[in-house]
Design brief:
mainly alpha; ABC transporter involved in vitamin B12 uptake, BtuC; two-stranded antiparallel sheet; 11 helices; globular
Length: 289
Amino acid sequence: MQIIQSLLNGILLGGLYAMVALGMSLVFGIMKLTNIAHGDLIIVATYICMVMAVQFSGNLLLAVLITICFMMLIGFLLQTFLINKVLDKGPEPPLLVTFGISITLSNILLLVFGADARYIPNTLKTINIVNTEHFSISAIYLLNFIVAIVVICTLHYIMKNTFFGRSIRATADDVTTAELMGVNTKRIYSYTMCLAMVISSIAGLLVGMNYTYYPSTGTEYLIYAFGVVVIGGMGNQMGILLGGIILGIAQLMGAYFFGTGYQLLAGYLVLLIILTIRPQGILSKATRR
């Protein structure tokens, strides 16, 4: 049945949306920074993955490892020399800085790669892991979901069980107290951005394997990230996965009942409903004023 297929695809697509949103949620949860450049950084990672895959004859694992190194360096430099300089000057300057970064990155990609659509070649999109009379499971969609589970569990372990994770949580809870205890909070912010870039690099590879992309595609994935974070709750890893699943199901069920032209609209309607009923997010314990 087509409705079962749409529901299943929506759940698995939620893994990709969760990966897209996870880095943004991490940065906001620690720094209280809404990173407008988040989507563009994902697309930068996608282009680097594409170039590395070509250089290494389609070895995507090696490509994403090299991309992670590049993106960690980019994230560290942006955070240390731009964002950290304005974090303590109110909410508007960091927002404007990340907006400027977003515009700069998209224009650099346009100059270097042109406006043509790109795609990371892979065979997974043509393979079904499961084929039955009523539904099938695409290998690429299943990969999205498995990678999301692994990354979220790994991030949860790092945050709960390592000194680095405890330093991040201490900085997020109370910057002044963390500094009194000897934590270099500005350095922690830079390391947090590096961690977010690791996640964004993996998300960039998945985006390029699933869909075509352009230098301007970052805005689209920034909107997806906002939607997932709002639905699931900012800073809650399991909430991000749930938010991704809800958004994925809403979009594909909207396409099933009303046509593909209403896919995005259905997702936004669900987002508005959740904002009305529970504005802090489904799994967030915080309350919004």
